[in-house]
């Protein structure tokens, strides 16, 4: 497993935090200092935490565990989609569905309905409906696709989540914490590192920073056992 050097992390702008007045004081142990009123991360610690995270995620991968990757930031969508395809884990790249973790029984029913509706279009079964009804179902399928396509292979709550922006997607963080699901991910200077099992102190806004960290995680997971098998069936919920 290859972890980027401090120089590579610096080139990717991983060291740049938020304006000093926007910080979360708990992030202090991971900071190098302040430059032009902006917090700067200690990249030695960023590298160490990235390595620890990758090792922990590799162990989960080897055990066949499911890791949910979350980022609703538009500039990270493509990066996350490519990672999801490479490692076979579920992703959330659009809006976080409230209750995705804490109300899993209801969400799993919606996933089953989504998969059944998707299948009806593939098999032509939908043709038994009128044209108007088909159009309504097609619109419904589009909405469900946007919301659920990334998690359609999940048959239970994930064993861990990896989050890119813990402040933006704070609902996901709180749901995972309430269920004691381990949280990995990028912890910018405005986020609370205590929410993470292993925080990676780094810039969560710069595209190159996010790309570098997610790319490192992707390579670590692929090297630890290749692509995770996607589960095709959803458990029935009574």
The span between the termini is 43 Å
Q: Quick one: overall form?
A: elongated
Gyration radius, in Å: 19 Å
Q: What is the number of helices?
A: 7
Count of beta strands: 8
Q: Spans with pLDDT under 50 lasting ≥5 residues?
A: 230-238
**What series of H and E elements makes up the topology?**
HEEEHEHEHHEHEEH
Q: What about the largest sheet?
A: 5 strands, parallel
The spatial strand order of the largest sheet comes to: 5-4-6-7-8
Give the strand content. 5-15%
Find the structural class using helix and strand composition. alpha/beta
User: Considering DSSP H and I runs of 4 or more, what fraction of the residues is helical?
Assistant: 40-55%
Chain-averaged pLDDT? 92
Defining key terms:
alpha/beta; 238 residues; 5-stranded parallel beta sheet; 7 helices; elongated
Q: Describe it for me?
A:
- The protein is 42% helix and 13% strand.
- Helix 2 (43-62) packs parallel to helix 7, helix 3 (77-87) runs parallel beside helix 7 (207-223) and helix 4 crosses helix 5.
- The protein is elongated.
- The protein is an alpha/beta fold and 238 residues long.
- The relative contact order is 0.21.
- A hairpin with a 2-residue loop joins strand 2 and strand 3 (38-41).
């Amino acid at each position: 497993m290859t972890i980027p050097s401090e120089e590579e992390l610096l080139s990717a702008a991983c060291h740049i935090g938020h304006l000093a007045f926007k910080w979360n004081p708990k992030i202090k142990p991971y900071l190098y200092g302040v430059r032009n009123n902006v917090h700067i991360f200690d990249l030695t610690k960023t590298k160490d935490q990235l390595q620890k995270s990758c090792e922990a995620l590799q162990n989960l991968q080897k055990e066949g565990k499911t890791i949910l990757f979350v980022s609703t930031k538009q500039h990270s969508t493509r990066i996350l989609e490519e990672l999801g395809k490479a490692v076979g884990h579920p992703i959330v790249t659009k809006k976080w569905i409230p209750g995705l973790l804490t109300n899993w029984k209801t969400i799993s029913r919606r996933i089953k309905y989504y998969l059944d509706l998707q299948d009806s279009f593939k098999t032509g079964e939908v043709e038994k409906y009128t044209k108007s009804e088909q159009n309504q179902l097609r619109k419904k399928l589009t909405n469900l696709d946007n919301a659920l396509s990334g998690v359609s292979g999940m048959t239970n709550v994930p064993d861990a989540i990896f989050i890119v922006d813990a402040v933006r997607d704070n609902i996901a963080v709180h749901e995972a914490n309430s269920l004691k699901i381990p949280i990995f991910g990028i912890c910018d200077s405005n986020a609370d590192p205590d929410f993470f099992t292993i925080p990676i102190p780094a810039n969560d806004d710069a595209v190159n920073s996010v790309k570098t960290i997610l790319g490192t995680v992707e390579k670590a997971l692929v090297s630890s056992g290749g692509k995770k098998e996607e589960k095709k069936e959803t458990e029935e919920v009574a």
